[in-house]
Write a structure and sequence with these properties.
The protein has 16 helices and 21 strands. It has 497 residues and is α/β, with parallel strands linked by helices. A hairpin with a 3-residue loop joins strand 1 and strand 2 (14-21). Helix 10 (310-320) runs antiparallel to helix 12 (373-399). The mean pLDDT is 95.
Length: 497
């Protein structure tokens, strides 16, 4: 009898359910978008209740379209936008505030106060992260300070915090009627609140940021049975995998050994390299948990998070009107031979890794009367490639990591010009897999490992297959000359905010 694994993929702009068979073939899928709420500059919110409604809708739609029944699905995996923060009432299931999204920068003043004279790295030794608006801890503190009575209720255990995985798992397993309040080590490692070595909440971090332990979920492994779905068309099936989206993509790419790396290209881009069973310290990159399978020792990653890549293409489409659709940027960029000397640094809300400069803002430099729409389109694609190169350089400098190849996934990998530019910028091959929805696949893999459909992590390699490979097509001298121009453009984006 065939085995099927369902992956709930809750992302920044949409929620999907993808059903895979045991050989990683897609059997069914459904997708629904949710609103992006922008109350003011730098603030980004989602409605958690809308996200939950979309979750129920995609489950029902995917199963109906495929003809599968709940009983046909062996297990459910969850993967999610990570640092996005939800606080809800345990008794009613109602959020006390919109979810504050990972891109949101409203906590900048709070982060500065927490850093104080000790600097933003005061917790890094234990949690692997700098103090930043990016992570969940300051977002929780902001909600507790700005919603009347919230701090007292949190202290009393009446409120629950979760990243989106916790919110979905709690609702899926019953919500106010016995829902399990859990997260996994990958998501917990992105809060600023978890000790990387003990895999438990770090008391000094909780005290500094002001987060009551009573509101936190239980930290579990990435692949185990947390509970049973008690609502939705998947009622009765085990919820057996939880992995943050970028770590899920690493798993879906079968990057299970030290030194293997992937980059996911979406709204932002996220490059992760597996560093093995010990966390590796870095001055500019993020140290997180890659995954923990059952009771096995965890594996760790170094990550470079880039805030704006696909979002820059969306900006050209929605704000500037340069293109009618995101895929149209490739044809426009191919209308010219090169960037015409134009460089675009899309630092719309600061720069993430390896710069960590919230004061940066977007700049377009090198404009002459010769510059055209095609040059700007090409510069936009090149910005993604050069930002990725900056992260790879930091990995090499901080951890001695030398890439043999970069595995890539996400929607932007359909852009073949971008993939060639990426190989040229890095000087190593870029490889796209047959299944590009590796985030969902990683969640399915985790669930499959937990329920026994997959025997062990090594079996993931058998289910990964390359689709296309791009080799570098420029020499080292040209690569370094163009990178130097990019670095000069980045320097001009600083000190604006």
């Amino acid at each position: 009898m065939p085995s099927y694994l369902a992956a709930l993929d809750q992302g920044t702009t949409s929620t999907r359910l993808i059903v895979f068979d045991e050989d990683a073939n897609t059997v069914a899928q459904a997708r629904r978008e949710h609103a992006q709420i922008l109350p003011r500059a730098g603030w980004v919110e989602h409605d958690p209740l809308e996200i939950w409604e979309r979750t129920l809708e995609v489950i029902e739609e995917a199963l109906a379209d495929s003809g599968l029944a709940a009983a046909d699905v062996d297990a459910i995996g969850i993967t999610n936008q990570r640092e996005t923060t939800v606080v809800w009432d345990r008794a009613t299931g109602e959020p006390i505030h919109n979810a504050i999204v990972w891109q949101d920068t409203r906590t900048a003043e709070l982060v500065g106060a927490l850093a104080g004279e000790h600097g933003v790295d005061r917790l890094r030794e234990h949690v692997g992260l700098p103090l930043s608006t990016y992570f969940s801890g300051p977002k929780i503190a902001w909600i507790l300070e700005h919603v009347a009575g919230a701090r007292e209720r949190a202290d009393a255990g009446e409120l629950a915090f979760g990243t989106i995985d916790s919110w979905i798992a709690w609702n899926l397993t019953g919500g106010i009627d016995g829902g399990v309040h859990v997260t996994d080590v990958t998501n917990a490692s992105r809060t600023l609140l978890m000790d990387l070595r003990t895999l438990d909440w770090h008391e000094d971090s909780l005290e500094l940021i002001g987060v009551p332990r009573a509101m936190l979920p239980e930290i579990r492994s990435s692949a185990e049975i947390y509970g049973e779905a008690r609502v939705s068309a998947l009622r009765g099936r085990p919820v057996a995998g939880i992995v943050g989206d970028q770590q899920a993509a690493l798993l879906g790419q079968a990057c299970i050994a030290a030194g293997e790396a992937k980059c996911t290209y979406g709204t932002g881009s996220f490059l992760l390299v597996n560093t093995g069973t010990q966390p590796v310290a870095s001055r500019t990159l993020l140290t997180s948990v890659a995954a923990r399978i059952g009771q096995e020792p965890p594996s760790y990653v170094l990550e470079g998070s880039i805030a704006v890549t696909g979002a820059a293409v969306q900006w050209l489409r929605d704000r500037i009107g340069l293109i009618d659709s995101a895929p149209a940027i490739e044809e426009l960029a191919l209308s010219v031979q090169d960037n015409g000397g134009v460089y675009f640094v899309p630092a719309f809300s600061g720069l993430f890794a390896p710069h960590w400069r919230p004061d940066a803002r977007g700049v377009i430099v090198g404009l002459t009367a010769y510059a055209s729409a095609g040059h700007l389109a090409r510069a936009t694609l090149e910005a993604t490639a050069w930002q990725t190169r900056d992260v790879v350089d930091a990995m090499r400098e901080d951890a001695g990591v030398e890439l043999d190849e970069l595995r890539v996934d996400g929607g932007m990998t359909a852009n073949e010009l971008l993939m060639q530019v990426q190989a040229d910028a890095l000087g190593v091959p870029v490889v796209r897999p047959r299944v590009i929805e590796t985030t969902a696949l990683g969640a399915a893999f985790a669930a499959g490992l937990a329920c026994g459909v997959l025997p062990d992590a090594a079996s993931l390699r058998e289910r990964w297959e390359a689709d296309r490979r791009w080799e570098p097509a420029i020499d080292a001298a040209q690569r370094e000359q163009e990178h130097a121009r990019w670095a000069a453009a980045v320097a001009r984006s600083l000190d604006w905010a």
